Amino acid sequence: MSYEVPPTYNIETGNLLYRWLGSFWSGICEDSELLRKMYQANGVLSAQLYQEYTDSLNLSNRNKVPVFHRKMWFPVEIRLSDRNSVAACGVELGMVPTPVIGPQTASPYEIGAVFDIGGSAPYADITAYKLSNDIHSIASITNNIGSPDVIYLNGVNYIIKDSVIYFLAGQDPFNNTNFQSETYEDTEKIILWCVDTLLDREYVYNYVGYVLGLKQESSSEYLQAGNALWDVYNTGASIDLVNVAIGAVLGEPVALTEQEKVEAIVNTSRLVQVVTDANVYTFPAGTELASKIINGYSLHKGEFFTDTVKLYTNLDPTRLNVDNPEVDVLKSDIPALFMPAQFFRAKLDQGIGISWDSTPIITDKVDKNGNYRYYFNVFGSSEDVNSLWSDIWQYCEDNEVACKDILQGYITDDHSTVVGSIAGSIAPIEFFMRNCLKANAMVLVLDINKLSEFGRNNIYTLRQLYKILPAHTYTFVIEKINDICDNYDLAVESETTEELDAGKGISSYAYVGAPSFEHLTYRDRTVQLKWLPEGCG
Amino acid sequence: MDNNFTLESVTQDNVNQAMLTLTSLIKEVPAYANLDLSTGTVLTDLLLRPQAELWSLEELRINFVTQMKSLQSMLDSGETIPVDTINDILSNFSTSVPDETKSSGDIIIKLGNNSDRLFTAGYYFTDPTGKQFITVSDYSFSFQPVNDELPIRQSADENYYMIVPVVAAEIGDDYMLKQGTPLVPSSDIFGMISCNVYADFSGASNAADLTAIIANLPAAISHRSLESRTSISSILTDPNFGGFTSIKAISVVGAGDLCQLRDKHNYIGASTFGRVDIYPRTFSSPTIVTLLKTGVKTGADSYEITIDADDAPGYYAVKSVTDADAVINPIFDFDTIVAIGSYNFEDTREADDILDTFHDISADNAVIETAYTKYQKGTLTVSGVTTSVTEERLFKVQVYCAPYIAEIQNYVDGTAVRNIKSDYIVRSPLMCLIGLRCTLDIPKTLTTTTDEFKYLIADHINNLSFVNKLSQSELVGLLISNGVKYVDLSSDATYGFKLEGRIRAADGSIVPVYGPDLVIPNVTDEQVLVAANTCVFAADVTNIFITLRKI
Fold first, then answer.
1. B66 vs A: CB within 8 A
2. Which of A40, A406, A440 sits opposite B268 (nearest CB)?
3. What is the DSSP string of A205-242?
4. Between the N and C ends of chain A, which has fewer C-beta atoms within 10 Å?
5. Dist. CA A365–CA A363, nearest whole Å
6. Residue B481 contacts A, CB cutoff 8 Å
7. Among A36-40, A183-187, A513-517, B406-410, where is mean pLDDT lowest?
8. The dihedral of CA A151, A152, A155, A159: what is its sign?
9. Interface pTM, i.e. ipTM
10. Distance CA A349, CA A353 (A)
11. Contact at 8 Å (CB) between A211 and B221?
């Protein structure tokens, strides 16, 4: 016959319960060390639970969303049978330690040499184990918490890529006796104590990005961009907030407070810092600050520190003062614009391009009202250009307007009326800015070579601006790319013009809401080399 | 799904991690390195496992709280989330889950005499499946109506008819009755010859799913103003502002967008921007408005009917023109938007009262620029009328029409919300009306009926926003995920897969779109307002033909 203690008994006689608990450790299991370790273990779990609480609290505030979930101590079990049973490792530029392609035993750049991949010392005898998919990084690894005998460091002893841990240069824990292994189901297993493990629970997407329909890999830049865009959604497209959003999307720092004064500029071999009375802004070493950023300069919210990103909100050419050096800058930043087909009443196939290059205005035949027609050249297919001028002439004719009135200021009074003669000259971009673009168009100019990798990979996110800028405005985006070109000296006889390729032209275009016809995307990445650890299938 | 977890909620996986921490730390002491902590030992069963379970339980609770802070996490959980829980999140965005709505429509009752009739509120009609449709107020009918009385009319066959408005008793899109469906009144109607649905019912909507709610969040977090594409959507749909909660999707055609024709009214014909056209999808399944219009005889068998701007503001296309008391069962025949059973007609549009508006509409292109707005009116030239050929006669005109086009236009024109010098025109989206025929092989055990598959497909199509294409693969995927084993994708004339669409362009021409994928960019013509940002796919279940084969 069993005897059951009613639960109420324990509650009513709490002291008895405590005595029982105490007597277990004093009477049944008299092992204070075991008790100590057990409470230490409970302490670790308790601290981790607190971390979960703080994450949960911070997730309520979109500005405080943690990018990753942090595990202070995280046990990871690896099994010998799983060694090298995972996919290949992607070796790419920028990795730490730096992977070197080639055997590195002799002159690596010998003409005709064939390079092997993964020949550099750190990657010799590499072994790989699969981690759970959500592990983003591990700061270091020990064999135990209380008194570690060995500490492995990220980038020195191992690297983690795509949820696979690669132990470098023969540093597999199974070859290190400090890691205690034990037999488990016909194989050996080891517990790695991982310090400061970051788990990717996609917090940024799940608590910020999804609201905007914006998904990227978890990162602090992604969080910053999401919040900056959210601010514009919330409060409207003020110039300051739009600049902040553009800066955040492209990873380009902007002044964050309404007014702040530059107090110091630090320029070292490791970084560039601008210290203001409100914030400290850090840039990579070698960053070229805008010439206006000097001690004492007053920044306003949304102002960029460099010339990497510029937003021209005023395209009124009548404001262009020839004595103003800014004019040359604008012409350099906006050397040409492409106006797609839907910009025009005429039915065009692609659209037309316009630049600052002065082009002659040519006299054409008279229309039925007796007015001369004129045209000037713009970039585009002959069909599109013809359609454009036919439409303009037809409109003028129907509305009894002289074509010369449209070109007033560009046509000379005493020009010849012979068909095909020059009646004046014009910079097409200036003409279209004056007559069409000055009212509601903006130009965003990006110096691609100076953008960070995050910024270059994130340009496509600028499409978010389409949804949040005023619907009656249009934004051109110009990417300035400085290609490295070979120099040819035509004075040298052997370098004839036959040898010169005219170069590749950008025949396609992309605009907000539509990709380029050539299917180029802003997500294009550099080529990755795949390296297979020994034994990988 | 509530946060009432108990130890029973904790899984082995949850416990293992905590157990690993506890046992590993104990085994760190050399003396305990070989301590037996396997299942069944006293230390494990009495101390370690209960502790691990408690820690896991706490973690489970916190994770639940964390998960319930994000709609995306809720969606990823795969659980059925109560509306209140979703509203808890949406309250932060000043919005809530849209209400479900009931369908409504008209019933035609044919009578052998013209005596007065009275229907009190609550009188109901029952369809063949037992669903009830109720009169929501008292309706008096008379052959010679006065005041608020509704008319009893004489039909061509010398009998009489009256049209009674009703509302579905319950919420749900399966209450969307089709024209011609027979109904049984709740009590005898003196002299009744027949009782049928007069025109397709409309207005029903089911509860929005989480995916649709999430898709609307950008508008929810946006400021409410007629400024950006998102904020325009926001101000129109917010119950505290425009309140047009029936808007399912919205396309704002502004600067640089295809089909923005109104910002090029200058000599150069180049955009100066500053003009915005708003295309609100205020319907799920294509909404049909039924008009009783008087036609004026213009020839031996032809009549002219004027559809005034106020009759069906922004109407998209005419589905049918029939005798006033006709109940036809319109079928889409893959070749035309017009229903079989309709008189032949021509639909000519013109601008109405554009000089009275401040909107920038070119007189040179007025038909296109007022198309599908409240500033259009139409003239129908009907031919082939051989019965009751009198100087004037009544016609039943059914038009596809997005609801609230005039109301939304009036709202954005209101000085209380309109920005100075702004110019917004509201247009009905162009409906790419879908016809689909397919044969499905299903397991013998699957109980899904043909009609249920039709509604499944129609629901999917009618919940699309402004998208580039409707693909065969997405429809096949939908069917496969609902138990279908095989979809016949051959071009067999009887059993093969046939998917087609028809768009009425702004100049009145019909643009066919052929499958297997219906790709709007392939038929884009911005001069007549056909583009992906102006068109929505819309399907009527009567235009979906499915053959089921049990395998």
1. yes
2. A406
3. IIIIIHHHT----S-HHHHHHHHHHHHHHHH---HHHH
4. N
5. 7
6. no
7. A513-517
8. negative
9. 0.84
10. 13
11. yes
Minimum CA–CA partner of B268 in chain A: A392
Pairing of strands B276-281, B424-426: parallel
At B91, give phi and psi (nearest 5°): -60, -30
Residue in chain B closest to A201 (alpha carbons) equals B73
Residue for token pair 């500490």: A151
- The chain-wide mean pLDDT, for chain B, equals 90
Q: Is the peptide bond before A122 cis (omega within 30 degrees of 0)?
A: no
Q: Do residue A467 and residue B271 have CB atoms under 8 angstroms apart?
A: no
* Closest of B373, B393, B380, B376 to residue B348, by C-alpha: B380
Contact B97, B211 (CB under 8 A): no
What is the C-alpha separation between A30 and A22, in angstroms, rounded? Answer: 10
pLDDT digits (tens, 9 = 90+) for A185-227: 889 999 899 999 999 999 999 999 999 999 999 999 999 999 9
Report the relative pairing of strands A280-284 and A164-167 from DSSP bridges. Answer: unpaired
Reduced to 3 states (helix: H, G, I; strand: E, B; else coil), residue A507 is: coil
Average pLDDT on B511-523 reads 93
Mean pLDDT of the B397-407 span: 95
Q: How far apart are CA A342 and CA A348, in angstroms?
A: 8
Q: At what angle do helices A239-249 and A220-235 cross, to 10 degrees?
A: 160
Sheet of B288-297: strands edge to edge? B317-323, B392-400, B288-297, B303-307, B376-383, B344-351
pTM of the model: 0.83
Whole-number pLDDT of residue A37: 84
Q: Which residues contact A174 (CB under 8 A, 6 or more apart)?
A: A80, A83, A181, A188, A190
Does A69 have pLDDT greater than 60?
yes
Q: What is the largest CA-CA distance in chain B?
A: 111
